[in-house]
Design brief:
The protein contains twelve helices and nine strands. By secondary structure, the protein is an alpha/beta fold.
């Protein structure tokens, strides 16, 4: 419609439970500041979406029975302290406004179950958010958030929307994994002695955390110990490949992303890198030291021919695995797939003898 005002008697004379006037041309005067104390005492839902409201009147505090307040797609910049009087409010919707912060008095609104603030100007989630122990839905997409406070983890969130924020301190994978992953992330970071609990740690602090994890041999390292990699490394001698691989993964992440947390993805990368490094060592040991290019390639062709019994000129994945087995290397499916895709121009058809020779020589020369 094209309503530009709401009659005063809607609030004062009629015992209305719902006022819905979305998609009109109502301005801030649609809710007068000077309403009497008993106005709207039975009002349970006030829906004024898509209007021209730039300021929410302090009279909103008179609606003590209000359950739903929806002012999405207006131009509201702030909320009055009187909103805290709406102690029965469960649903607050303010998408598409200009709100930059929420008043601290909202910490007493413990009935809130949903807050929608998408497409606003919020630059910080307040620490008092943790007092909203019934909050299940929080939408903060397309704001200016850079950090999330640990206190957010105290909310029983089922829905958490954070798209379109410059959250540089949190890995994309964590954000995409859903509310539970984000909550666990915040709890993990809070376990350390940070000067500012509202800020996720920077690169130096995150590096300290990673070193602490490695040195304390927590359950992540036990997963590595469960394999026989370390026993095989002792047979070969030399530096602990697991630690080297972990340091490489951490270093790469810090260099490219600035801040990282030790997580399952990093552990998987560590396992793959360590196994790959071990495979390279075994191959080097099999071929022997101080070989020139032609000698390495000749040995590679010899092994290739033994496995390629049909003379087809290519090896599939199982045959490539057999080639490495003959050279003393046991490969997992993951590392085998990596080698195949690195060397073969067409991994589906398999790897040719020239490509196999090139792969073996690349590995040998890197270790030599």
């Amino acid at each position: 419609n094209r309503l530009t005002a709401l009659p005063r008697f809607l609030y004062t004379l009629l015992p209305l439970r719902v006022i819905a006037a979305a998609n009109n041309q109502l301005d801030s005067e649609c809710l007068p500041d000077d309403l009497p104390l008993n106005a709207g005492s039975r009002l349970q839902a006030l829906v004024l979406d898509s209007n021209l409201i730039g300021k929410l009147s302090m009279a909103v505090g008179l609606f003590t029975s209000l359950n739903v307040l929806s002012l999405s797609y207006n131009t509201v910049e702030s909320l009055p302290d009187e909103i805290a009087e709406n102690r029965q409010l469960t649903d607050l919707q303010l998408d598409g406004n200009k709100v930059s912060e929420l008043p601290k008095v909202m910490s007493t609104m413990i009935s809130l179950q949903r807050i929608k603030l998408n497409d606003n100007r919020i630059n910080k989630v307040p620490t008092w958010i943790g007092s909203l122990t019934r909050l299940k839905h929080l939408s903060l997409a397309n704001n200016h958030l850079q950090y999330l406070p640990y206190d957010l983890s105290k909310c029983p969130l089922k829905v958490l929307t954070l798209d379109g924020n410059p959250l540089t301190g949190i890995e994309t994978g964590v954000l995409h994994a859903g509310p539970r992953a984000v909550m666990e992330y915040l709890v993990y970071n809070n376990a350390y002695d940070l000067k500012d609990k509202d800020m996720l740690p920077g690169p130096a602090e995150q590096r300290r955390q990673i070193n602490a994890e490695v040195n304390s041999l927590t359950h992540q390292r036990h997963r590595l110990h469960a394999t026989d990699m370390e026993a095989q490394e002792r047979d070969l001698g030399g530096t602990n490949l697991v630690t080297l691989s972990l340091n490489k993964v951490v270093g790469d992440r810090v260099a490219s992303q600035g801040a990282v947390i030790l997580d399952e993805q990093m552990l998987q990368e560590t396992r793959v890198n360590a196994e790959r490094e071990f495979a390279c060592n075994c191959l080097f040991q099999y071929l022997g030291m101080a070989l020139i290019s032609s000698q390495v390639k000749a040995k590679a062709r010899e092994v290739f021919s033994e496995v390629d019994e049909d003379g087809g000129g290519t090896l599939d994945r199982s045959e490539l695995r057999e080639c490495f087995r003959k050279m003393g290397v046991k490969l997992s499916d993951t590392v085998l797939r990596i080698f195949l895709h690195e060397a073969a121009s067409n991994p589906v058809k398999g790897i040719t003898v020239e490509e196999f020779q090139s792969l073996v020589y690349t590995i040998y020369s890197a270790k030599g």
